[in-house]
Amino acid sequence: MKTDRTIFRTGAVSVLVLASAIFSVVACGGKGGKEMLASDAAQRVYVAPGDKDEVYLFTSGGFNGQVGVQGIPSGRLIKVIPVFSVWTENGYGFDEETKMMLNTSHGFLPWDDSHHLQASQTKGEQDGRWLFINGNNTPRIARIGLETFETEEIIEIPNSAGNHASPFLTENTEYAMAATRFSIPIPQRDIPVESYGKGEFNGTITMVAIDKKTGALSVKAQVLVPGYNYDLSHCGKGPSTDWCFFTTYNTEQAHKMLEIEASKNDKDFILAFNWKKAEACVDQGKARTVPGPHVINRRGHNSKPATSEKVATVKMLNPTDCPGIMFYMPTPKSPHGVDVDPTGEYIVGGGKLATVIPVHSYSKMIKAIEDKSNFTDERMGIPVLKYESTLAGEVQKPCLGPLHTEFDGKGYAYTSCFVTSEVVKWKLGSWEVVQNMPAWYSIGHLSIVGGDSAKPYGKYLVSLNKITKDRYLPTGPELVQSAQLWDISGSKAELLLDFPTLGEPHYAQMIPAALIKDKTKQIFELEKNEHPYAAKSEKEAKVVRQGNVVHVYMTSIRSHFKPDIVDLRVGDVAYFHVTNLEQDFDIPHGFAIYGAPLPNILIMPGQTLTVKYEPKQPGVYPFYCTDFCSALHQEMQQYIRVSR
């Protein structure tokens, strides 16, 4: 197969034609990858009844807006964590305690496009505390607590559009970094789109500070950068710990037909950002205060309702006011991924239209910065370094469409290749390809257990494939997306399993179960419930009327609710505050009202949740438990009487 650079000089249209041709050949191969299967694959993925998986796989849901949780090696879906989209299964985004989580400066937005996940780290190693995920459409970052597997906080990112390059973490989870995908006028205003190429559009790099104890998020500062499209990022480790790296494409600053107009330059950039210096400049008062309206939503602990904090301004730093915080490293071509190896020395670019995998050297970058003869240009005060001055090496002709690289901790890197539908395994230092691992089909990202940390756990690799085609039983035009599990513990990777995923996974994190499973909550302690309308015993169950506003302090326990009967009037605004009195693991109670325009809610043991109900017509309306809880579950039903 021809993979030299001339393929790409004819423009993106040729690339797409080539991709289509390759896919047709691969998809019609007929063998379906069975020749790659380990001979004992079934035994190696089998998890016997009652046994547990070794690893948690967290996948972004893409246009689904949520996070999927699957066990590895079995591939079994074990939970969906609601994040950016309302979720009728448990009432997330509908009950009064969680709908505040979806507030933004644009109002209530019950959906987003969730792309990238990062697990919290200490000294570059996974610590099992939190999981962070971005909202790509309306820029947001969410923090998920791995004690409860619930979304605990969502922060909006101002002065940005297309929050794709986030939420990538510094080595000790001091910051989550976010960058602009779609550059926009900053401040936002009505100007001709054609002025994009005249420097009227900009991007931002946002430093989202993370409280070490609570995980609380806040915008420390933003840095104004040229109006390119900023793609993925990763922060350094060890010697490079003070730096984060962002890929950029569309350095042509095209505003239409980007598949052609933004694919002309032979090289785009990796932006090297010294966040530690930027932090110092902000603390020294070198950033100016600018408009930056955004909302921070925090879910209360111990059943406290969520809160929404509106923030009007942010600190904005210009690179010229803080020299030495940013440098552009040229890298081929239209890069998507940038990944830092476990030692912190190698920075790997993933050029979608490149025929090589470039590997930059952190130590060479520092030397190049010290010698200004390596500066070839300047963009908004950001020096551009010579390509050769930072280059450690290139993986020659590895594949077509390299995107994303992770590491096994044993000296090998694995890069996903979209166009040729494969993962290539190559050796750090010698840059030689040692194995080509076919993917079925059109792999986007991949995940290794701890593969982007300072201490990869290796063993398993999951490829996240964009096209399912013939992998499962057909279900009409819309097909579930596919993942494939590989064992990478030996000298040669072996295919173990195909399994479906939630939504469209763009990215994933695999975390050893041992880091999480023994820390997870089983119940919420009833005595610690701080909800202002909690009823902690049936004696406290009551109905309180304040004009046409009615508060129902309700309890649920196997197998009844209290109060038994609730009297309301047409025009009332009723709040049902339901407290689950159970203190046993895995005994939630559901709550649903006949004819109410709101879904079921699920209340965990010891928790209080609230639904708002406004009766419109007189009558008698049953309410009941929707989650099977006992032999008398069917009897767990009572009535609301509505009068004029």
Description:
The protein is mostly beta strands and 644 residues long. It has two domains: 53-517, YVTN repeat-like/Quinoprotein amine dehydrogenase (Methylamine Dehydrogenase, Chain H, 7 Propeller), CATH 2.130.10.10; 524-640, Sandwich (Immunoglobulin-like). It contains six helices and 44 strands. The chain has a ten-stranded mixed β-sheet, with helices on one face. β27 (412-417) and β28 form a beta hairpin. The longest helix is centred in the first third of the chain and has 16 residues, at 12-27. The protein starts with 11 loop residues before the first helix and ends with a strand. GO terms for molecular function: metal ion binding.
Structural class: mainly beta
Name the CATH superfamily assignment of the largest domain: YVTN repeat-like/Quinoprotein amine dehydrogenase
Question: For the terminal residues, how far apart are their CA atoms?
Answer: 78 Å
Question: What value does the Rg take, in angstroms?
Answer: 26 Å
Write the CATH architecture name of the largest domain.
7 Propeller
CATH topology of the largest domain: Methylamine Dehydrogenase, Chain H
Strand content: 35-45%
Count up the domains. 2
* Largest β-sheet summary: 10 strands, mixed
Count the strands? 44
- Mean pLDDT figure: 93
User: Which CATH C-level class of the largest domain is it?
Assistant: Mainly Beta
Instruction: Specify the overall morphology.
Output: globular
Residue windows where pLDDT falls under 50 for at least 5 positions: 1-30
Helix content class:
under 10%
The count of helical stretches stands at 6
Adjacency order of strands in the biggest sheet: 6-7-8-9-17-18-13-12-11-10
